Automatic annotation (TrEMBL):
Record keywords: Membrane, Transmembrane, Transmembrane helix
Compositionally biased region (Low complexity): 33-45
Ranges annotated as biased composition (Gly residues): 16-32, 60-69
Bilayer-crossing regions: 86-106, 126-146, 158-177, 183-202
Record protein name field: Integral membrane protein
Disordered, as annotated region: 1-75
Amino acid sequence: MSFGDPNNPYGPPQGQPGGYGSPQGQPGGYGAPQGQPAYGYPQQGGQPGQPGYGYPQQGGQPGYPGGPGMNPMKPEMPGLMKTARVLLFIVAGLQILVGLLFGVAIGAAKDVANGMDTDAANGLVGLGYVLVFLLLALAVLAIVLGVKFSTGGSGIRITTIVYASLMLLGSLSNLFAGEGGSATFGGIVALAIYGIILAAMVNSQASVWFNRPRY
């Protein structure tokens, strides 16, 4: 094979192949530059891609329990507290009813006392009005205590204990003073009602309920 005359000025330079092509040391033809992969193939040493939507990312923050901005579930009132609350409302209704009946009876007695114009009759009428006012005040107190059972604290519990204790003593006095008949029966019923309320308030469940954290 002949390489031509090295002294010929019209020939190709010595050490380089003739013809049109790529420079020495580089592959010929059209393609990707040397050291870079072609399109469609993953690059080595590049940054990792981000995970797709719907997949959990590592190192993320945990979600809020129940969703952000939602209030935690409120505890349910124990059964003893519900029973005492219902009994307070029942007692309040009975006290209002008895107070109204006493008020009507005292009004009629006042008309009779005005005709008699005696100090004793007027004194009895005044005492009757005090009794009616006391019954209505106790009824209002029982309603307020029952309503506050769901939101009140230890003060409501202590007030209910005092209220039930006083009414329990009154029921005992009526029971011993009555000589049979309706007074004795009413004393027994009242004794049972206020005894249940007092027992519910001194129970450990009442202490936990009225000392629970408020949200």
